[in-house]
Amino acid sequence: MHVEERDSLILNLIGKTGFVSFKSLEASIPASPATLRRDLDRLEAKGVIQRVRGGARLVEDEAAGERGDVQSLAGVPFHENIDRNRAQKEAIGRAAATLCKPGESIIIDGGSTTLQMCNHLADLHLQVLTNSLHVVSALLPQPGTRIAVPGGSVFREQNIILGIGGEECMPRVYAPRLFMGAAFVGAQGVMQADVVLAAAERQMIDRAEWVALLVDSSKFAAPSGSVVCGLDELDVVVTDAGISDVHARMIEQAGVELIIA
């Protein structure tokens, strides 16, 4: 992980309270304790944070601005993304719903493509764990669908709930199947524009036994961002017919099932 990524994650982990413990940093960031201490020293030298016993806090005169930043993630806001490639996303969501088995527990990650699954789940009597308030709203009219959400802070532009202090915020729901989205997909793996979102999705993957990636074909162009997982950690990719032959081979060579909606 690059220095800039660690700095961004440290500042986001401080959260609404303006404080993060060193223990939480160690649990959330893949770096040695010595590296994290140097990162904190560097941020303190810049005047962004102040080292305190057991962790770090934001400098008082910058705290308000930084806390505002915590509630916003890098990437396209949900309301701008929902209608992009809408027909393709609806087809992908419909195809993904057929992969669900009646009565099982699943995780639906927040996203404009994963949201399109919801209208096709009403008769399956699923238990759904989701970090998306949009998904919650779509599932509420379904009396047979049970809904669980994690703890954490609400990020308004994406309307998702993320734990930002490194703590375990997921309820103890057995949901071995995960349906997730992405900002980009490439040979490097599945990527998100924001390192905090990438870390949250990594936690979901670690809980799942089976992972389906739902992305329209435009997500295979110009990949960049924070890597969530390698392609070989996926079980299924559901996309549309616009995927190029090159990218289709990339998915299949990784040993991942490709479904064209």
UniProtKB/TrEMBL annotation:
It holds the Pfam family DeoRC. GO terms for molecular function: DNA binding; DNA-binding transcription factor activity. It comes from the Bacteria. The lineage of its organism: Bacteria, Pseudomonadati, Pseudomonadota, Alphaproteobacteria, Sphingomonadales. Residues 3-58 form the HTH deoR-type domain. This is DeoR/GlpR family DNA-binding transcription regulator. Transmembrane segments: none annotated. Keywords: DNA-binding, Transcription, Transcription regulation. InterPro entries: Carb_Metab_HTH_regulators, DeoR-like_C, DeoR_HTH, NagB/RpiA_transferase-like, Tscrpt_reg_HTH_DeoR_CS, WH_DNA-bd_sf. The keyword DNA-binding applies.
